[in-house]
Amino acid sequence: MSNLSGDAKTAGSPAMGGDLASELAYVRSLAEEGRNAPLIGGRYYVIWGGLIGMAALLSYVDDIGLVELGFMDGFVPWIVAGVIGWGLSFTLGARASGKPGAQTIGNKTAQAVWFSVGIFMTLFWVSMMFAHDNFTDIGVPPYLFFNLMFPVAFGLYGVAFYATATAAQLSWLRYFAFLSWAFAIVALFLLASPHQTLVGALGSFSCAALPGLLLMRNEPSDIV
């Protein structure tokens, strides 16, 4: 009985209570660090923003006659950008999944929302290949629907940025959501203008590549 009493006193001692409090504080700090873990998808923003921006810039200089691309004009820059973009995304995706913080709600939300944006825009672009001249009988010029790509893309960028900013608790990303929507409106008003691709290039660099670079500065190392 005396031993049992001694054990009970030890369990209820201030030292034991202090250890428990410190352990709880440690667990709480780990949870806070996990919840506020930095986003690890900056490289994807840079890849897609850079590739689409360059494809748009090449198309623009070719359209206005500043540079003659030859066999590289038309759809070729966009196809090359899409193939390289998806190839790098899947290649780097396997490596990024092992980074610290990859399974946090912020990173999982960002990965899901941007992947869905990429899937939709790819399907939308491919669909335009078949539907672009379906409405010529009512006066819609062929290929005009392709000019909807940038208004729709920047609109979805804004939604993705806003959702990512909320999930990852990065309020500054919301500014890029607003900037993306601004580019969407400008691109819509330039629907029939050759200068729309220049706006698309500037928007891709500033609404995708730039925030990607900012995110990459805060990414954790591969080893904790």
CA-to-CA gap between the ends? 48 Å
- Tell me about the biggest sheet? none
Strand tally, please? 0
Query: Beta fraction of the residues?
Result: under 5%
Radius of gyration from CA coordinates: 25 Å
Number of helices: 8
Structural class: mainly alpha
Q: SSE string, helix = H, strand = E?
A: HHHHHHHH
Using the alpha-carbon principal axes, give the shape: elongated
Q: Which consecutive residue ranges, at least 5 long each, have pLDDT under 50?
A: 24-34
Kindly state the percentage of residues in helix: over 70%
Describe the structure.
The chain is elongated. Mean pLDDT is 83; it is low at 24-34. It has helices at residues 2-11, 14-35, 42-63, 76-96, 105-131, 149-168, 173-189, 196-217. It is mainly alpha-helical and 224 residues long. α3 packs antiparallel against α8 (196-217) and α5 packs antiparallel against α6 (149-168).
What are the defining features of this structure?
single chain; 224 residues; mainly alpha; 0% strand; elongated
Q: How is the topology of this model organized?
A:
Elements: H1 2-11, H2 14-35, H3 42-63, H4 76-96, H5 105-131, H6 149-168, H7 173-189, H8 196-217
Helix pairs in contact: 3-4, 3-8, 5-6, 6-7, 7-8
